[in-house]
Specification:
11 strands; alpha/beta; six-stranded mixed sheet; Alpha-Beta Plaits; homodimer
Chain lengths: 250, 250
Amino acid sequence: MSGPSTVTAAVLVIGDEILSGRTKDRNIGYIAEYLGKIGVDVREARVVPDVEEEIVAALDALRSRYDYVVTTGGIGPTHDDITADAVARAFGAPIAEDPRIIAMMAERYGPADFTPARRRMARIPSGAELVDNPISTAPGFRIGNVFVLAGVPQVMQAMLDCAVKSMKTGSTMAVETIESGQVPEGRYGDALGAIAKALPTVSIGSYPSFKDGKFNNQIVVRGKDPEAVEAARQAVEAMLAAMRTDGKPL
Amino acid sequence: MSGPSTVTAAVLVIGDEILSGRTKDRNIGYIAEYLGKIGVDVREARVVPDVEEEIVAALDALRSRYDYVVTTGGIGPTHDDITADAVARAFGAPIAEDPRIIAMMAERYGPADFTPARRRMARIPSGAELVDNPISTAPGFRIGNVFVLAGVPQVMQAMLDCAVKSMKTGSTMAVETIESGQVPEGRYGDALGAIAKALPTVSIGSYPSFKDGKFNNQIVVRGKDPEAVEAARQAVEAMLAAMRTDGKPL
């Protein structure tokens, strides 16, 4: 799947609330789908707690390996919001109140409302670029190849719209989804494996879901070469058609 | 948060479909919540693609660091199901068809239906214990401190019920959730930080959500000492009550 037009990313979700199960993450899937559509392939995701050493270690592992890292969570006004400090530490950058953010926030909050807690949201690593927050003022930021976004899905999504403007993108994946209908995975697994082997430039996945006591499968063919993806789709359709009509039990 | 009765775990989600965004993960949150309730603290989660080296590297990083690792995905009958091979490689264990699984599956499938693809699901690392699958026969397994479960949420959940029977558990977290009502994070952030500092054995988080154009916040207090958690709850309630009545704008 590698090639000159491949751009990769990782998602780093930061927050105790995800690891306690209190909050169910909705950001990994959203970011993965969004970036995939514009030609940035998400290759890994991690969830870490609100512990500076853990955030720094994950950031360093991911930012050295992928073109981009998108983080979510930990940039609010409370004591458990330590993402900006962790990112600064990972980059060895000083952290301080950013005058651009202070100006934005001073426009929104009166002097009595501009609490030290809110000022905390203006602290970003030196040299970072801002990522607009059209919903609640305090911006995210970008430093190096790391984009630091909010954790609240609506705010994260609005920030992501801004963040991607400065990302380079690769070629997008062609994707075909084929319903297997009543043909079970165990029936087509061998033939599908042979197709996958014959077409190494496409990625073929088989995905069962389970509803009302029955499995339903989809076969997904993905790749950067649309012709190879189309060839794989045809081969899979032909395979399923043969199995539906060969008289053997499904 | 550490102590003699702390048992930790990590979740490893395996599958290209999660990283493409096609399938939205529902297993991390479920496992985190489920294990937390029985006294196993999930400390990290990762999502990796269907690439053996990636699975092995993540497994090795996580199994050496946490008491348990729970994996989901990649144990079906198709060519992209490579989790069992990756786990065997991580443990340096041979992999082969397990006679117990062959017997179970032979009961379900007739000779014509017991395809090579289905037999693939009987391949597990040598020495692994089985984790029952009450839904679709082919079991998960445990080797060392790693539990290997299905990716389909309903099947994973049924397997998890079985898997936890052999886990040691620590003391559970006491958890209190306090609604901040109309008091915004930026207003209470400083005072909340002071409470968190004064009560270092509890973990205090502030979690905004956004609905219909408005933020709503919850403050969550967690810890293994119920008295300390109760003290923190009372301090947070008192803090919010003071802010609701001090006459300053919220």
